[in-house]
Amino acid sequence: MRVIHLTATAGPDGVLRLAVPAEVGDYDVKLELTAKPAANGTGHAPTPEERGWPAGYFESVVGSVSDDSFVLPERCSIKPILPLDGK
Questions:
Q1: 3-state secondary structure of 46
Q2: Could you tell me if 33 and 27 are in contact, meaning their C-beta atoms sit under 8 angstroms apart?
Q3: I want to staple 53 with a disulfide (CB 3.0 to 4.6 A). Which of 32, 42, 48, 71 is the partner?
Q4: What are the E-state strand segments in 9-72?
Q5: Is 64 helix (H, G, I), strand (E, B) or coil?
Q6: In contact, 50 and 44? CB cutoff 8 Å
Q7: DSSP label at 39?
Q8: From the centroid of its chain, how far is CA 34?
């Protein structure tokens, strides 16, 4: 089996095109893609909306409080924990 390593970048249309040299005769192709961050630093982390979440979803999930007058109660004091060896 012959292994050929190719590096390619998607075009402005977001489509990745590979030019794979073909040997004479029949051949099988196994393609493995590994995504790497852009070397020029222009890549950005996708927003939740770009990942398919509805707009404002994480601001209004169950357990969130939109009432500005809500105040957390004071926490009780925590007793020191004794070491396991009893010293």
A1: coil
A2: no
A3: 48
A4: none
A5: coil
A6: no
A7: T
A8: 14
Q: What angle do CA 51, 49, 56 make, to 5 degrees?
A: 135
Q: What is the reported pTM?
A: 0.30
Spatial distance between the Cα atoms of 53 and 68, rounded to a whole number of angstroms: 25
Answer whether 16's CB lies under 8 Å from 35's CB. no
Write the CB contacts of 8 (distance below 8 Å, at least 6 apart in sequence).
16, 17, 18
Domains in the chain: boundaries: 1-34
Q: How is residue 46 written in tokens?
A: 């996708």
* Cβ atoms 48, 57 nearer than 8 A: yes
Distant-in-sequence, close-in-space partners of 55: CB < 8 Å, separation ≥ 6: 49
Q: Which residues contact 53 (CB under 8 A, 6 or more apart)?
A: none
